[in-house]
Structure formats: structure tokens, C-alpha cells
Amino acid sequence: MVSKVSKKEVRLEKHRRLRRNIAGTAERPRMAVFRSNSHMYVQIIDDSKGHTLLSASTLQKEVGLTKTNDVAAAKALGEYIGKKAVEAGITEVVFDRGGFIYQGKIQALADAAREAGLKF
């Protein structure tokens, strides 16, 4: 008998394994990324207090996107969250890829955030 585990369950298990070792502090908050089929969401979180310090998504008009589910949109979102974080005085973060593979959209978002001034 073969049991089949869904892709979502596999991703969530990867995320649980990552979260055992990753935690955001006030000095170095966690930058969590979630990617759905049509949008991307980013939060900068202080886990010691349980507060979301900043958030952004491809749904926001300030990001200025027409297409929201490609690598260019991820890059624009990374630049936007990076600029917002630097303006808020956050320069270093811990990157939480949320169990997603570090390629394509996730990698483009991370690289753009680095170019905008975030260190991780």
C-alpha cells in the first residue's frame, strides 16, 4: 500500500524543520515569504514579541504591478520591502523561505531585497 503525501504537506513539513532553527529577534527580525499561485506575501516579524513589523504583497497598489505571479513581480516586491525596511531602521534580517525551494521567484525576491540594503 502506497500513501501519497501532497505537495502542500511536504512544503509545510520543510517549513516546520526550518522554523526549529530560525527565529527573529528585535535586532534581527525574520523575513517570512509566502507564495501562492497568483500572489506573493512578505512579512518582517519580531518573534520574541510576536509582532509583525512590516508587510507587503503583490496585491498592494504601492508596489505598482500589473502582473503579480512572475519573477519580475517578485523582484519588485523584494525592492519594495527592502526599501521599507531600511526606512524603518531594519538592516539585518533572517530569511525564512517558508519551505519553498530557493529558486525562481523566492531567489529573485531575496536578491532584490539584498540590493535594496537588507543583509541576510
Low-confidence stretches: none
For the record, the count of structural domains works out to 1
Helix share bin = 25-40%
Content of β-strand:
15-25%
Shape designation: globular
- What is the average of the pLDDT values? 94
Task: Give the CA-CA distance, first to last residue.
Answer: 44 Å
Here the CATH topology equals: Nucleotidyltransferase, domain 5
Subunit arrangement of the protein: single chain
CATH top-level class = Alpha Beta
Q: Which structural class matches the secondary elements?
A: alpha+beta
Query: Would you identify the CATH architecture?
Result: 2-Layer Sandwich
List the helices and strands and how they pair.
Elements: H1 7-21, E1 30-35, E2 40-46, E3 51-57, H2 71-87, E4 94-96, H3 105-115
Parallel strand pairs: 1-4
Antiparallel strand pairs: 1-2, 2-3
Helix pairs in contact: 2-3
Q: Can you describe this structure?
A:
The chain is of the alpha+beta class and 120 residues long. It has a single domain (7-115), classed as 2-Layer Sandwich (Nucleotidyltransferase, domain 5). It is 36% helix and 19% strand. The chain is built from three helices and four strands, in the order H-E-E-E-H-E-H. It has helices spanning 7-21, 71-87, 105-115, and strands at 30-35, 40-46, 51-57, 94-96. It has a four-stranded mixed sheet with strand order 3-2-1-4. Helix 2 runs parallel beside helix 3 (105-115). It is globular, with a radius of gyration of 15 Å. The model has no long low-confidence stretch (mean pLDDT 94).
